[in-house]
Design brief:
Layout lengths: L4 E4 L5 H8 L3 E4 L9 H10 L2 E4 L7 H4 L7 E4 L9 H6 L3 E3 L6 H16 L2 H9 L20 E5 L3 H11 L4 E5 L5 H7 L2 E2 L2 H7 L2 E4 L13 H6 L5 E4 L8 H9 L5 E4 L19 E3 L8 H19 L10
Parallel strand pairs: 1-2, 1-3, 3-4, 4-5, 6-7, 6-9, 7-8, 9-10, 10-11, 11-12
Helix pairs in contact: 1-12, 5-7
Length: 321
């Protein structure tokens, strides 16, 4: 009997695919830092029983309509806004993601951005490497304290709660805004709910971790930044499209806010000439929220198990509902 065919859209460690290869023919795009071209993905989808995809792969109705054998799409991410969920459901295709296994790694990265932006870590490291450090000065590259400040978390899901746990270790006051109140988190984390603009007004650090929806797209706009303190630092480890980047550039140039730490952007990879990359008060990272070796291995293994389960007629571990 012919084995089912699985296409993987980015190079993954062979050991993460070992179990899947025992029951399926697996073909993989051979590059790690180069996305699979659209035409290749379209051709592979037409013959695939399963796709293991990245957040950068656009899985839309046009691609799905010709994917007559496709049974499952396993996205190597928590988010899945790159996939037309409705079209997939109508075609009986199961969509899976990789939640939980990346929660703590992403929270570590988000809090690292808080520290890096507040204490001017990247700017200071470059200052030394560029040979500019000639003497010690009382206010040389002085940043802002993080301890005892107020953090406002927008999107209090698993990662938001993990960031709040880290904030408690810095004796921070924890505010949050979420689509739904989280009474258990309020009790366990001593977190206080605020409406969106009230959170912006009160917070020293505003951390965006919200998923991308019609409500959150562009929610950090000019009005939002104008609501924040002049000393506030904006952190985005959620979705790039939740931010109006022109409004963010304007807010930073006019010193409406003090700085930003960004792991995600509207268009990725970001243009090297983008104004955000010219500013010392911006820490910019290449979407590495979950990028620890341990976590990325676990994500790949979970995606493969989801595919195997569907191909074997079993329920997947983490279906998107």
């Amino acid at each position: 009997m012919q084995k089912p065919y699985v296409y993987v859209t980015r190079k993954l460690p062979e050991e993460t695919l070992a179990e899947l290869k025992k029951r399926a023919e697996v073909n993989m795009w051979p590059h790690e830092e180069k996305a699979v071209p659209r035409e290749v993905l379209m051709a592979e989808a037409k013959k695939a029983d399963a796709l293991l995809t990245m957040l950068s792969d656009k899985i839309d109705a046009d691609l799905l309509k010709d994917a007559s054998s496709l049974k499952v799409i396993a996205n190597l991410a928590v988010g899945y806004d790159n996939i037309d969920i409705s079209s997939a459901a109508n075609l009986g295709i199961t969509v899976c993601n990789t939640p939980d296994v990346l929660t703590d790694s992403t929270a570590d990265l988000a809090f690292s951005l808080i520290l890096a932006a507040a204490r001017r870590i990247v700017e200071s490291a470059n200052y030394v490497k560029e040979g500019k450090w000639n003497s010690w000065g009382p206010l040389l590259l002085a940043g802002a304290d993080v301890h005892h400040k107020t953090i406002g978390i927008v999107g209090m899901g698993r990662i938001g709660e993990a960031v709040a746990r880290r904030a408690k270790g810095f004796d921070m006051k924890i505010l949050y805004y979420n689509r739904n109140r989280k009474p258990e988190a309020e009790l366990s984390l001593d977190a206080e709910y605020r409406e969106f603009h009230e959170l912006l007004k009160e917070s020293d650090f505003v951390v965006s971790l919200a998923p991308l929806t019609s409500e959150t797209k562009g929610m950090f706009n000019r009005e939002a930044f104008q609501s924040m303190k002049e000393s506030a630092i904006f952190i985005n480890a959620g979705r790039g499209a939740s931010v109006d980047e022109n409004a963010l550039v304007e807010a930073l140039k006019r010193k409406t806010i003090a700085g930003a730490g960004l792991d995600v952007f509207v268009k990725e990879p970001i243009d090297p000439e983008h104004p955000l990359l010219t500013m010392n008060q911006v820490v910019a990272l290449p979407h590495i929220g979950s990028a620890s070796v341990e976590t990325r291995m676990k994500m790949a293994e979970l995606a493969c198990r989801n595919i195997s389960n569907i191909l074997d007629g079993k329920d997947p571990e983490t279906p998107v509902t």
